[in-house]
């Protein structure tokens, strides 16, 4: 009978680790998208900031 509570306890800890792994994957995906966006839009953003900076 003590095997069942131990198994439930083990599975509960596994779910917490799974949740942390999912958050880490989401964070990595957001970082990759942000880096790709900066690579493709970096030149345009730089021009806009230069224009704003020179007008001030």
Outline:
The protein is an all-alpha fold and 56 residues long. It has one helix at 3-55.
Low-confidence stretches: none
Give the helix tally.
1
Number of domains: 1
Q: In one word, what is the shape?
A: rod-shaped
The SSE string, one letter per element, is H
**Which oligomeric form is depicted?**
single chain
* Class of secondary structure makeup: mainly alpha
Please give the radius of gyration in angstroms: 23 Å
The major sheet is characterized as:
none
Please tell me the overall pLDDT.
81
- Estimate percent helicity: over 70%
Strand content: under 5%
Number of strands: 0
Q: What gap, in angstroms, lies between the N and C termini? A: 75 Å
Describe the structure.
The chain is mainly α and 56 residues long. The protein has one domain. It is built from one helix and no strands. The protein has one helix spanning 3-55. The radius of gyration is 23 Å and the shape is rod-shaped. The model has no long low-confidence stretch (mean pLDDT 81).
Provide tags for this entry.
56 residues
Topology (SSEs and partners):
Elements: H1 3-55
């Amino acid at each position: 009978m003590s095997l069942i509570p131990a198994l439930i306890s083990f599975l509960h800890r596994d779910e917490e680790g799974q949740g942390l792994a999912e958050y880490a994957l989401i964070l990595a995906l957001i970082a990759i998208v942000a880096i790709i966006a900066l690579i493709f839009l970096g030149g345009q953003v730089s021009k806009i900031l230069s224009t704003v900076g020179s007008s001030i």
